[in-house]
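User: My instructor asked us to take a sequence, write out its structure as tokens, and then describe one feature of it. I'm not sure where to start. Here is the sequence I was given:
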Amino acid sequence: MTDIIVVAGAGVSGLTSALLLSKNKDNVITVVAKHMPGDYDIEYASPWAGANVLPMATDENSRWERRTWPELKRLTEDVPEAGIHFQKARVFRRTKDESAPGIHTADPLFSANPWYQSVLPDYRELGPNEVIPGHDSGCEFTSLCINTAIYLPWLVGQCLKNGVIFKRAVLTDIRDAKGLSHTGQPAKVIVNATALGSRKLGGVKDEAMVPARGQVVVVRNEYHPMIATSGTDDGETEMTYIMTRAAGGGTVLGGTYDVGNWESVPDPNVAVRIMKRAVDVAPGLTGGKGIEGLSVIRHGVGLRPYRRDGVRLEAEALEGEDGERVVVVHNYGHAGWGYQGSYGCAERVVELVEGVLRG
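Assistant: Let's start with the prediction itself. The structure tokens for your sequence are:
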């Protein structure tokens, strides 16, 4: 008995959901999306991501990240063609940022006693002489960084190997995906992984979805370890992080977390501040030459799919135009943690889909 499933969206959440669903040979899966890996468009967030593992969830909401780390770790160790490498991470805290205004979804990362210390390897608190100037404390652990230009096509390849079919489509209503299976048969379940697109998509129209604009500078200069700081003095929407992607993917300097800002064009003034902050916290990035020593590959802007109510990961029954019921399993609203929660969330998608098909 075959179960026909359509996955709407080909970002990291949609692709990982399709991959885990395809491990069940009874599932016949079609991925439909406006944008596919290889595209660079402001509507398509996944290519612009760092992408790394710096836990952002609270302990009570940490299932998705806890469940994803072992699989990303396995891929890093055993599957070099996925484009992931280990990187030591250093997180620096400022006491004054604990009560700073604005939206700071990564605040749990900067906890003085974080839940992830028992999950990520080699965790330790930094000594006073290891903390960078202007900061009060910090920690170190083993993390990883993903080259998205390699990893997203790798996910597509793994899906293809399992028989998943990919189709370009522009959806105006999530229920329309029911008729887009490559089999020509109606889908029994639709997986909605349309991210920020869920704000305007018919049948969903989730107004809790807003962009969290992230501006970055990608440079050729390599730097280790990965660095993240709890805040900056340049404004509540600006932040500092540095991560070097695997396999020559360049070093990402960030950044901003500007909720509600739809602007797709990089701001040159913000770019200068990003580069200056990066060189200040990591002088070795340019060997002491300042921002003039940075070899810039590109300036970029991505719109993180931020959801004010948190990630939406649930099944919903909708009535189609033909009067027939269609079940949608939603998997969107991951903000800036889509990669580091991808396998945990996709695992839940599989549970929900199986519950619908068997229930």
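For the description part of your assignment, you could build on this observation: The longest helix spans residues 342-358. Try explaining in your own words what that tells you about the chain.
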